[in-house]
Write a structure and sequence with these properties.
The chain is 30% helix and 19% strand. 1% of the residues are buried. The chain starts with a strand and ends with a helix. A hairpin with a 2-residue loop joins strand 2 (26-30) and strand 3 (33-38). The chain has a domain at 2-38: YefM-like fold (3-Layer(aba) Sandwich). With 79 residues, it is an alpha+beta fold.
Length: 79
């Protein structure tokens, strides 16, 4: 793990971000004491697969029924 002081981090921030994106961890220190760590962002596993919750979600029989008038008026008034 590479260690840099705050001044170096400010001066070479773009370069340090590129190094972190490449997998390197960078420790940022103030007066020789570690205060922060720049690490690569974890990548998502990939595109989501459709149908993974099939059979686990239930909707009531009135799911698409019209709203009660009180709620419908409140929604329109909130615009």
């Amino acid at each position: 793990m590479k260690t840099v002081n705050i001044h170096q981090a400010k001066t070479h921030f773009s370069r340090l971000v590129e190094q972190a994106a490449g997998g390197e961890e960078i420790l940022i220190a103030r007066s020789g004491k570690p205060i922060a760590r720049l690490v690569p962002l974890e990548q998502l596993a990939g595109p989501r697969k459709s149908g993974t919750l099939r059979g686990r979600i239930r909707m009531g029989p009135d799911f698409d029924a019209p709203l009660p008038n009180v709620l419908a008026r409140a929604l329109v008034a909130g615009r």
